[in-house]
Amino acid sequence: MHFSSDRKISLIAIVFSLLLATGSFGQAPYLLNDSTIIHRLDSQIDVFIDSTNSVSLEQIIKPGFQKHFQRRGDLIFGYLKSSLWLKIKTKTISPGTRWYLEIPAPFLEYVDFYQLEGTQWYHSAAGYYRKHSVKEVSHTGHVLPLQFNTDSISTVYIQITGSSPKTFPILVIEKEKFHEQVRWEDVGYGIFFGILLVMFFYNFFIYLSLNQSNYLLYICTIVCTFLIFSSASGYGGKFLWPEHPVLNFYAGRLSLSAITIFLPIFTIRFLEVKNYSKVMYYVLLSLLPLAVLASLLIITGTLSSAGNNLISLSTLVYMTTGIVCRIKGNKTANYFIAAWTIYLVGGLLLTLRNSGVFDFNFWTTHFVEIGAIMETVIIAFALGDRYRKLRKEKEEAQHVALLLQQDATEKLEMKVKERTEQLSMANHELNATLETNRLQTNIIEKKNAELDAFFYRISHDLKGPVSTSLGLSFLARKEIKDELALEYIIKQQHLSERLNHIITGLINLTKLSHTDLKKEKIDFNKLIDECIDSSRSLTHFNEITFTKEIQSDIEFYSEWTLLNAIIQNLIENSIKYCGPVTPFVKVTVQLASDWVMIDVEDNGQGIPSEHQSKIFEMFYRATQNASGTGLGLYILKRSVDRLKGTIEMKSKFGSGSTFTVKLPSMID
Ligand code: ADP
C-alpha cells in the first residue's frame, strides 16, 4: 500500500503517540467485529471545530489538546465555515481483514487523512478539489484504507476544510464489500447517465425531424443536467476530468446558471406562457439576466453559491408557472407540475440533509437524482406526446388533403367526361351541320351554275335582237323626218342602249365564274392610263383633272382582264358622279406587305349614308342623277372576290368618295 511520503511527519514527541496508542487517547476504540456490514461511525467520532482554521496536526495530536475533542453523536454541521477535525479510533478483531474508511460526500472540498502507522503519522489527501492521482483510492467519495497497529487498533485524524456543507456520514467497510458497493453505485449512476443520454438522443432525433428549436433548448437542459450531476456526484471528477478538479467547481456551478437560461425560454414555449399569464412570462424572462449575473459572480469568485441560489429560486418560479398555467386551462402543465414536484422534493430533501434537518441516507442523497431523471423523462415524453400530436395532425391534414384531392380529381374527371360528351355531341351536330351545309352548298352551287347558264343563254339570246333593235333605231333616225316620230325613235334607241348595257353586264358576270384566271405581271401605269383613256367618251371627261400616284418597283401578278374591269369601273363611276367645281379623280397604287392597295378618290357627289351599305348589291342605284344599270359595283365586287381581295368605300354625301381595293398578288 502506498502512502504519500511528502507529508510524512516525523514526530518530535514520539511519547505522545505512545500515549495515544496505549489508550490514553480518549474514548475506547470502535470494534470492527463484523466484515459483512457497513459500520456507520458518526456517533463514535470525536470532533474538534477549528474556528481559527489554523490548528496543525502537531497541535492536534498533543495529549493536552485532546480535551478539545468532543463526541457529539452525529456529524451534522450544515454550512459550517470553520475546518473540522475528526478523531476516529477503531479496532479490528481479525487482523487479516482490510477495512476502508469512507466519507461518501463528494462535495467535501479538502479532506486530509492522518493515520498513525507504528510511531509515524502518514498523510493521505482526498477531496472534491483534489486531483485523483494524489488520492490513495480513486473514488467519488473520500476513502482511506485503514492501517492497524500490532494491537489491532487504527487511529486516524481527518481534517475537513472548505466552504461546502459539512454534513456527512463516516463509514467503515470491508474492502471487498466496499468494491461491491462501488459497483452498485456505478450501475446506479450508469443507469442515471444512460437515461440522460437516451433522452438526449431521443430529443435530438425529434429535433432533427421537426426542426423545432424547443427540442434543441431541451437538449441543452439535458446537457446541463448531465454536467450538474456528473460534477455533484463525483463521477465527472472520477472519470471525465480526474486531473482537473477545478472543473468540479465550474462544470457544476456554471451549468446551474446555464440551465437557468435555457429552462425559462423552454418553459415559455412549452407552456405557451405568454398566452396564459403575462406576469409569469415576465418573471421567467427576468431569470435570464439573473442567470448571467450568477455566472459572473461564480466566475469572479464573488459568490460561488450563486448558481445554487438561482436554481432554488428558478425551480419555485417554474413550479408557480406550471400551476398558474394549469389553473388557466393549460393541460400540458400537468406534466410540467409533476416533473418539477419530484425535482423540488428531491432538492428540498438535499437542502434539508445538508443543513442537518434530515439524516444522510439514500433518499436524502439520491432523490434529487431520481427527480432529475423523472423530470427529464416526463418532459421528454410530454415533448414526444406533442411530437406525436403534431405528426397525427400532419397526417390527418395530409389525409384530408388527399381526400380533397381525390374528390377534386373525381369531380374533374366527371366534368371532363361531361364536357367530352358535350363536345362529342357538339362535334356530331357540327358534322351533321357541316354535312348539311356541304349538301346545301352543292345544291346552291348547282343552282348558281344553272342560273349562270340560264343568264348566259338568255343574255346571248337577247343580245342579237337588242343589237338588231339598236341597228334599226340607228337607221330609222336617219330616215324619219317627222319630229315626234324622231323623238320616239331616239327614246327607243336610248332604251335599247340601256338594255344592251344590261345584257353586256350580265354576259360579263356569267363569264366571271367560268373563265380560268390567267396571271400576268401588272404594269399599273399602263393599265390606269388605258382605263382613263377609254373613258374619254363619257360626259364631263374633259372637265376632270386626273392624278395618279403609283409606287415604283411594284411586282404584282394578277388576272389582267378582271383588274382592268375593276379599275375601269371605279374610274368611270368617279367621272360619272363628279362634282360641279374643279372635279378631280386621283388613283393611288401602293404595296402593303403582300397586298396591293388601289385607291380611287374623287370629290364628286358622294353617296348618302343610308345607301352606302347597299351599293354593292345587284341593280342597286343610289341616285338617278346619271344613267346606269346598278350592275357595275356588283360585278366589281364579284371580280374582287374572284381575285380573293376586298373592297371598302368611304364617302360623304356632297364631298366625294374613295374606293379602296386590296388584292393579293397571285401565286401559282
Ligand atoms: P350605276 O350603273 O348606277 O353606276 P353602280 O353599281 O356602278 O351602278 O353604282 C351603284 C350606285 O353607287 C350608283 O347608282 C351611284 O349612286 C353610286 N356610286 C357609285 N360610284 C359612285 C361615285 N364615285 N360617286 C358617287 N356615287 C357613286
Basic shape: rod-shaped
Low-confidence stretches: 1-25
Q: Total number of helical segments?
A: 16
Mean pLDDT over the full residue set: 87
User: Cofactors and ligands present?
Assistant: adenosine-5'-diphosphate
Strand content: 15-25%
Helical fraction equals: 40-55%
Give me the secondary-structure category: alpha+beta
Terminus-to-terminus distance:
123 Å
Count every beta strand, where a strand is a DSSP E run of 2 or more residues.
Answer: 19
Rg estimate, integer Å: 63 Å
The main pleated sheet reads as:
8 strands, mixed
Short description:
With 668 residues, the protein is of the alpha+beta class. It has helices at residues 14-24, 57-60, 175-210, 213-232, 235-240, 246-270, 273-276, 278-300, 306-327, 333-354, 362-479, 483-514, 524-533, 560-576, 609-612, 632-642; strands at 4-9, 30-32, 39-40, 46-50, 70-71, 83-92, 99-103, 110-117, 120-126, 142-145, 153-161, 171-174, 519-521, 545-550, 557-559, 584-592, 595-602, 646-652, 656-664. A hairpin with a 2-residue loop joins β8 (110-117) and β9.
Description of the molecule:
- Helix 3 packs parallel to helix 11, helix 6 runs parallel beside helix 9 and helix 14 runs antiparallel to helix 16.
- 55% of the residues lie in helices and 16% in strands.
- It is built from 16 helices and 19 strands.
- The N terminus is likely disordered.
- A hairpin with a 2-residue loop joins strand 8 and strand 9.
- The longest helix is centred in the middle third of the chain and has 118 residues.
- It is of the alpha+beta class.
- Strands 1, 2, 4, 5, 6, 8, 9 and 11 form an 8-stranded mixed sheet that branches. Strands 14-16-17-19-18 form a 5-stranded mixed sheet, covered by helices on one side. It has a 4-stranded antiparallel sheet with strand order 3-12-7-10.
- Bound molecules: adenosine-5'-diphosphate (ADP).
